[in-house]
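Page 37, continued from 36.
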């Protein structure tokens, strides 16, 4: 009886040892296989870039009226009167009310400094508006008309494209950027003697709104006044850019 028990125990121990050995071999083989796969999985990262040039379709003219008077209320009243004339003049050029918005309005005291004494001389009232011009042929006319009817501060002139136009052009640029990345990857693969697989990851860099073209309006208007000619305005061109990073996995060619 003791012999049978010992025999059974020995058999179980041998079986357990064999099972543990098999499990160890399987685990080791799996680890080696995973490590081998990990070592053979290579990655190639390339950056794709594309630029599409667009012609501006919209302009933003920032102009203002500045008035001065010893009395703050009178300065405000004079400013409102002149700005009213500017609004009417812009309307005659075809600019609708919803295309005009106030961007800043301020009242500042003006002092005359003599030695350590500051004497209040009056108040400056500044009213600056932004005018959206969708007919670029009218930009020069808008500037000249505004000055004729009271505008005495010209801040800036920006040319751009609408959001919908920017989105449409950007998608085109994005497709070109992906194609650019593919072209670069193919060139590298051919030169390095590797075979590319499908992209494992594609990252789009945050798109930026196409930057407007900015001009110093005052210089343009002063030049036109000196030459006694209408203000000449050219819209130029705008660049819409797209960038992507594409990561390809690859293997050696056999």
């Amino acid at each position: 009886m003791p012999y049978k028990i010992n025999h059974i125990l020995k058999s179980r121990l041998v079986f357990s040892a064999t099972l543990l050995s098999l499990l160890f071999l399987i685990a080791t083989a799996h680890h080696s296989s995973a490590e081998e796969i990990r070592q053979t999985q290579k990655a190639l990262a390339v950056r794709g870039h594309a630029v599409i040039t667009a012609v501006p379709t919209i302009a933003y003219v920032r102009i203002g009226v500045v008035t001065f008077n010893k009395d703050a209320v009178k300065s405000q009243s004079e400013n409102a009167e002149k700005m009213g004339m500017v609004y009417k003049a812009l309307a005659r050029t075809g600019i609708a009310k919803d295309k005009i918005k106030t961007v800043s309005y301020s009242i500042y005291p003006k002092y005359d400094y003599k030695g350590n004494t500051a004497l209040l001389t009056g108040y400056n009232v500044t009213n600056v508006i932004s005018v959206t011009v969708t007919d670029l042929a009218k930009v020069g006319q808008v500037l000249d008309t505004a000055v004729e009817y009271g505008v005495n501060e010209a801040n800036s002139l920006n040319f751009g494209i609408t959001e919908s136009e920017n989105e449409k052009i950007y998608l085109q640029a994005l497709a070109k950027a992906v194609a650019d990345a593919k072209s670069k990857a193919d060139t590298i693969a051919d030169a390095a003697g590797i075979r590319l697989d499908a992209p494992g990851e594609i990252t789009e860099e945050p798109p930026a709104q196409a930057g407007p073209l900015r001009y110093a309006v005052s210089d343009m208007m002063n030049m036109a006044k000196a030459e006694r000619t209408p203000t000449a305005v050219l819209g130029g061109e705008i660049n819409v850019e797209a960038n992507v990073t594409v990561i390809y996995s690859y293997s050696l060619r056999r």
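The longest strand covers residues 117-133. Flag for discussion at group meeting. DSSP finds five helices and eight strands in the chain.
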